[in-house]
Amino acid sequence: MSQRAAGSRLPLPFPGRTQRVLPGFGLSLGISLTFVSLVLLLPLTGLVGQLAGLSLGEYWAIISEPRVVASYAITLGAAAVAALVNAAFGLLLAWVLVRYDFPGKRALDALMDLPFALPTAVAGITLATLYSSNGWMGQTLAPLGLEVAYTWVGIALAMAFTSIPFVVRTVQPILEDLPHEIDEAAMTLGAQDGVAFRRVILPHLWPALVTGTGLAFVRSLGEFGAVIFIAGNMPYETEITSLMIFVKLQEYDYVGASAIASVVLATSLALLLAINLWQGRFIRRLHGGN
Amino acid sequence: MSPLPLFRRTLVASAIALGVVAPVMAEERELLNSSYDIARELFATVNPAFKDHWEASHDDTLSIKQSHGGSSAQARAILQGLRADVVTYNQVTDVQVLADAGLVAEDWQQRLPNNASPYYSTTAFLVREGNPEGIESWDDLAAEGVELVFPNPKTSGNGRYTYLAAWGAAERAFDGDEERVTTFMRDFLGNVKVFDTGGRGATTSFIERGIGDVLISFESEVNNIRQEYGSDDYEVIVPPVSILAEFPVAVVEDNAERNGTLELARDYLEFLYAEETQRLLAGFNYRVHDEAVVAEFADQFPETELLKVEDVFGGWDAAMEAHFESGGRLDQLQRR
Amino acid sequence: MQRIGDAPALRRLLIGAAVALSALFLLLPLVAIFAQAFSQGLGTFWVNVSDTYTLAAIGLTLFITALTIPINLVFGVMLAWLVTRFAFPGRRLLQTLIDIPFAISPVVAGLVYLLLYGRNGWLGGWLDAHDIQLMFAWPGILMVTVFVTCPFVARELIPLMQAQGSREEEAAVTLGASGFTLFRRVTLPNIRWALLYGVILTNARAVGEFGAVSVVSGAIRGETNTLPLHVELLYQDYNTVGAFASAALLALIALFTLAAKAGLEWRAARREALA
To answer: Does B217 lie at the interface with C, CB-CB under 8 angstroms?
Structure first.
């Protein structure tokens, strides 16, 4: 029996019929459903309403326009790179913050949340300033032949920046909760650091790492404010999907904007559902194994 | 530990917030002007002048509020319920959208002089010191190796003017030979280095990031930029043929009636045509109509032939449909 | 006892890499904001910050944030309690639904509210007829801010409460604890850090939200112009120093929040160590 079902004595499909131990089912269900309906679902009917007027053929024509399709590829590619970079960076930071003590650790820990705290437009303006050819970073990178601003790399950079906290903050608590014995045992047996990490630690972190990376990826798909300043916005080269939505809005084309937005929304929701299912399975396995 | 300290802090903050917001909400005659994004300083200068003018002949105190943003987004907000009394835009189409929705009088362009455009401008070039590429007119911009910066015509009215000016100038130069115009436009668009979403972004790219040889924008803009960023480092080039960029104004009758500000709103827009206001406007590098002021500022605005969108493209509606809508000329020219 | 990665050389290497990368990607942008804000001296910075419209924008932003936090705090706790303490059909779906704001681009989030409550929206006609102005007034800004920030508290609480299970709470109930006492004495102490972190994220995002707010705000100066919108406006209008001065304020609010969190954590850690 998994822990998560502990609230009900019997896991019947109709919860109202079982005697619950914990109080507050009615209250929390009522508040949650009201909130979700009013705040989340009701507004989405506006989006659905816009799409209702479209035939399937028209819908397809809008979302499969070559320039829009090119923007999907650019957005997905850059978001994937950003997410992978964050997976590595986040794992390193989580490890260092949990396992080591050093001066300035607390400040470093606090700094991790900066991308969430900073308005994305401010991040965009700042990154573009830093990485343009005469910015502090741009000047340093230019001699190496690396152009960041107004290229695909810039898009990935902005996406990576805005989603840094996801991996760090999902991996960190798991790493903290790992019992000492696990890696002490591995070390006593004489395994090397790298091997021991891969064999002993990583299997525990894996689900959190995937979750964090997935969240970072989803966040990057929808990012607009930070990216728009540092992307060159050239058709077929550096135009992201959010910009396509923005362009449609400028043309007073709510239907077109809604159609493209629905593609992004569906993709993101599918990914999030997958992450949630994965997370649930992991928790079950963890507790089932105990 | 509960998050109480944080909560208490936010409560205090909200009290402060109410204190700050409340005085702004005090009762007085109000007028809301919905305007384009780069007109903040312009109206910060014009509004106090109008306030004096109005209060001299009326008993009430007047407070003029400003809303600034991209002019399409601004018009969209009014369509969706923003209760602006007047609009002062840089795009005829954005006022027309409101007229089509019945919020602005159908004949708004006839209600005030000069197509309801109290000031106007044209599209001009900003080049770097000494004009190293020797840019004089539109055909120089399509030459190989010349790098251009101007905002995306898809997202910016400024960018649309640039596109139409280039097209109109090419049509004149090639005597309407469509194939040569198309080739020119393809080269011209191919020279664009960055497509920022708005005029400001393009300026930043050109000035602060050092991208491109030519920045194309409104004449008023390039002059302001040159003054702002040092007149020795840049030169303004006004091409011999360019486009007439109108800055249309209108009363949002529907809202003004509801707010009881019809008379005030009309007075405000008429005030933009008064000599003293026209002088203020010319100070911001806009071309104006008042003859006395035109004579005063003659040196500042070189003579140039200004094409009208109506004459070259058969009006804005036709231009939008043929060039800027999805699958239109612009999309075709950019297709690879 | 030796643990993985305890070798001094490796340790120094990893710490060095972490610090260097963080400085490059996180600290440098932060420094750049302040460098720009103060590029023309303290006086210019002060003139920009004490501008009437900047003050009004600060006030509005704090006001909206102060309303958003309690709303999402209550909702987040209720939802987390519901999905981690009870099994019922549709639980997983509900959990995914609250992620919608993560999945939706902020501009689209603003748009859907506008399409519903705006003049041409489904409810807009009725609201307009009754002279109720939601969009382009502070209620609209509050609504979209609540929308974009509503997953933060719940998302922080759910994994933790799931992992902790409900044995302690069940024991307390068996001992006769009532609902509120149970929550205050048993649940709250266990989830306080996650709760606090959720509040901090909500706070940060509510202060900084740009995309969604820009759609429904109308950007009336002194009335519906929030601080991030103010940054954008000043930037668009060539007042770079002014824009970065306001951006620096936002960064300061961010830093203050982060410091508050770090401080609280430190105090709690010390108390635990003493106990």
So the answer is: no
